[in-house]
């Protein structure tokens, strides 16, 4: 039982940090795609393109403080055509163009410092006879505030995803190509219907919602 639980936790952690075990890719096709997309959007091409050789992961992400490295999974390379891969690169460049990584960093750091200071002074100015109650109150308050902060950050990341989608559509001659790309990815990644907590802590909106918003934008 414990072994199964630990294995499940390990699997979840590996999935969350899927980009860690990636390797520099000397792939001329990917490099050319990246360069063409960068020119089209008026940005410098990614300095590094890294690939994680796992077919069960269908994902791409930009990593690094300067937004100069993209990690892409073998799974997404296998199922998409070069033109469809261009839209994926464009989506990731859009995040860099909008500086979403820096905005999330600021949102994460500023409130965290404020929350800790607020709790410190709050506990200084209220009278609590029991030290145990004081410790429990502090721990519970920190946990609740941390959860609230994470929900807010995930909300922002979902909004950033939708914003990046719009930028992709704006920069494509055939906008519906990106919609069909999202649909193809969704077919490979579809799982059971998410519950309310999974939705709150998800970094991406449901694909059907993203597609609906793109169709609304194209009207």
From TrEMBL:
PANTHER family: PROTEASE HTPX, PROTEASE HTPX HOMOLOG. It comes from Ignisphaera aggregans. InterPro entries: HtpX_protease, Peptidase_M48. This is Peptidase M48 domain-containing protein. The chain crosses the membrane at residues 104-126, 132-153. Its cofactor is Zn(2+). Keywords: Cell membrane, Hydrolase, Membrane, Metal-binding, Metalloprotease, Protease, Transmembrane, Transmembrane helix, Zinc. One of its GO terms (molecular function) is metalloendopeptidase activity. Residues 27-216 form the Peptidase M48 domain.
């Amino acid at each position: 039982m414990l072994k199964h639980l630990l294995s499940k936790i390990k699997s979840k952690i590996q999935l969350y940090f899927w980009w860690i075990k990636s390797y520099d890719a000397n792939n001329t096709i990917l490099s050319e795609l990246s360069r063409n997309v960068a020119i089209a959007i008026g940005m410098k091409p990614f300095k590094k393109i890294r690939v994680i050789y796992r077919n069960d992961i269908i994902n791409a992400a930009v990593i690094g403080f300067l937004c100069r490295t993209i990690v892409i999974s073998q799974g997404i390379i296998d199922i998409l055509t070069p033109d469809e891969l261009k839209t994926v690169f464009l989506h990731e460049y859009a995040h860099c163009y909008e500086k979403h990584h820096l905005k999330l960093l600021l949102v994460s750091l500023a409130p965290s410092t404020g929350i800790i200071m607020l709790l410190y002074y709050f506990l200084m100015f209220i009278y609590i006879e029991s030290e145990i109650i004081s410790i429990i109150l502090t721990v519970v308050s920190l946990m609740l505030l941390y959860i609230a902060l994470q929900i807010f950050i995930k909300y922002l990341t979902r909004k950033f995803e939708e914003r990046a989608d719009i930028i992709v559509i704006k920069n494509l001659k055939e906008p519906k190509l990106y919609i069909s790309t999202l649909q193809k990815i969704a077919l490979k990644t579809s799982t059971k219907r998410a519950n309310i907590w999974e939705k709150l802590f998800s970094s991406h909106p449901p694909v059907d919602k993203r597609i609906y918003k793109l169709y609304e934008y194209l009207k």
